[in-house]
Amino acid sequence: MVSIKHRYTGVEYKTVTRFSVKFKDVFILEDLYVLMYEWLVERGFATRVDADFPERYYLDRTGPAGKEVWIRWRPKRHPIPGNKFWRFDLDIDMHVLGLKDVELVVQNKKVKANKGEVEVQVAANLIYDASGEWKKSALLKPFRNFYFKRFLSKKKDMIEKELYNEAYEFRDAINYYLQLETYLPSKMAGFEFWPKRTPEQ
After folding, report:
1. pLDDT tens by residue, 80-96
2. Which residues have CB under 8 Å from 62's CB, separation 6+?
3. Would you kindly state where each structural domain of the chain is located, as residue ranges?
4. In degrees rounded to 5, what are phi and psi of residue 99?
5. CA angle, 33 then 35 then 38, to 5°
6. What is the DSSP letter of 200?
7. Which residues of 3-39 are buried (b: 16+ CB within 10 A; e: fewer)?
8. If I label 128, which of 16, 48, 99, 142 is the partner at 20 to 30 A Cα–Cα?
9. Cα(39)–Cα(48) distance, rounded to whole angstroms?
10. Contact 118, 6 (CB under 8 A)
């Protein structure tokens, strides 16, 4: 019998935050996909090499009510260059329902768009000892908890905050595209370069 294990089995991690963005109206799915992709590339969670992009699952099927799409991404990065103890993991799941093609008239021009319901769920996980160096070493393992609590406690808090902020910057980028409310103080910084769900009227 095949044994199925969670990918974090035996891994020490903390879910720093999780959120969901829901939207039902007219938008352009391709633009939303590209926006999320570009954000991850810019932040070092992925590269532009398609073969390396962490898309773990993609399902596209059409029914009487419209198209249904499932997308699952698992991007990750090390927040400190050269240090593999810490790792940021983003669990990104997108579900689209009832997607249909529509046409809009913007400035006397027809624009192709989509209409439907989309939900993006994100969990931001901080991985400790991501390389497994401390856990695997017979010499280091006995001192791991002591060293972690004594010397890395403040660093952990700082890195957790960094991941928390990055996760909500990602959310705000999605919200800005969908023209939903954004929350971070720097919410508009750079967002003017992102597309919105429909062209400006």
Report:
1. 998 888 999 999 999 99
2. 68
3. 13-193
4. -75, 125
5. 105
6. -
7. eeeeeeeebeeeebbeeebebeeebbbebbeebbbeb
8. 48
9. 11
10. no
- The rounded distance, in Å, linking the Cα atoms of 112 and 102 is 6
Phi and psi dihedrals of 119, rounded to 5?
A: -130, 130
What pLDDT score does 201 carry?
A: 45
Residue 93 CA to residue 59 CA, distance in Å, equals 12
Residue 53 corresponds to which tokens in the numbers above?
Answer: 């992009």
Pair 154, 171: CB distance under 8 Å:
no
DSSP assignments along 16-66, one per residue? EEEEEEEEEEEE-HHHHHHHHHHHHHHTTS--S-GGGS-EEEEEEEEETTE
| Measured CA angle at 196 (ends 195, 199), to 5 deg | 95
Residue identified by tokens 């991850």 is 40
Q: What pLDDT, in 10s, does the model give residues 18-77?
A: 999 999 999 999 999 999 999 999 999 999 998 999 999 999 999 999 999 999 999 999
